[in-house]
Amino acid sequence: FVGHEVDFVKGVVAMDGLPPDDRPEVCFAGRSNVGKSSLINALTGRKGLARASNTPGRTQEINYFTLGPEKYLVDLPGYGFANAPLPVVEKWQRLLKQYLSGRATLKRAFVLIDFRHGVKKVDDEIMTLLDRSAVPFQVVMTKQDKVKKWDQDKILEQVRDALNKHPAAYPEMVVTSSEKGDGIPTLRAIIAGLD
Ligand code: GDP
């Protein structure tokens, strides 16, 4: 699903705006600035594609992209904006819950974790929501190139410990660097294998 097979479909603000659930989909979630746009761009080989999701007005939407003719890639808004107005946060949380619990074709959620920071409280909350919604999820570590090799093990251990508490979590993480390209083919293969 590289290049021309990937296109922006639409931004969704309410459940009735979702495209027909006629194909499997995967979603990407993560704190703001985790490197989600960079990862989606690296994954699809189309620079600037996920920028569509980061333009003002689009940031609170569930953004749909096609991955070839047979799948959707769903970009969920970045969470953890401390300064967003409460009604905005609440509206977004409601939509997120409805989406996660009501989308039968959602095959897997990828939860992005910044390698430098490990699992934060908001990440843990999203994982709990995924547990409750019975959505299997897999952690994708981002920005591996920013962490020295000898610091990586203890962070990965913290993440593993956190994942142990979540029944919906896959134990295997995907370690990536959008900058260097590490882990991108692996992630692509995982998505290609989901039906
Ligand atoms: P988003 O808010 O989650 O969409 O995050 P972005 O993709 O916009 O990335 C946030 C910042 O982290 C930007 O300055 C990116 O250049 C940087 N970044 C993202 N991925 C990587 C990576 O793999 N390595 C490095 N060194 N920087 C990255």
Could you characterize the architecture of this molecule?
- Helices cover 34% and strands 21% of the residues.
- The chain has 195 residues and is an alpha/beta fold.
- The protein has one domain: P-loop containing nucleotide triphosphate hydrolases (Rossmann fold, 3-Layer(aba) Sandwich).
- This is Probable GTP-binding protein EngB.
- InterPro entries: G_ENGB_dom (IPR030393), GTP-bd (IPR006073), GTP-bd_ribosome_bio_YsxC (IPR019987), P-loop_NTPase (IPR027417), Small_GTP-bd (IPR005225).
- GO terms for molecular function: GTP binding; metal ion binding.
Biggest β-sheet: strands ordered side by side in the sheet: 1-3-4-2-5-6-7
Q: What distance separates the N and C termini?
A: 14 Å
Q: Taking all residues together, what is the mean pLDDT? A: 91
- The CATH C-level class name: Alpha Beta
Computed over alpha carbons, the radius of gyration is: 16 Å
The CATH topology label is: Rossmann fold
Tell me the helix content: 25-40%
What is the CATH architecture term? 3-Layer(aba) Sandwich
Strand content: 15-25%
Which spans of ≥5 residues are poorly predicted at pLDDT below 50? Answer: none
The CATH superfamily bears the name: P-loop containing nucleotide triphosphate hydrolases
Ligand identities: guanosine-5'-diphosphate
Find the structural class using helix and strand composition. alpha/beta
Summarize the biggest pleated sheet.
Answer: 7 strands, mixed
Order of helices and strands: EEHHEEHEHEHEH
User: Tally of extended strands?
Assistant: 7
State the shape.
globular
Number of helices: 6
Number of domains: 1
Function: Necessary for normal cell division and for the maintenance of normal septation.
Cofactor: Mg(2+)
GO molecular function, one term: metal ion binding
Family: Belongs to the TRAFAC class TrmE-Era-EngA-EngB-Septin-like GTPase superfamily. EngB GTPase family.
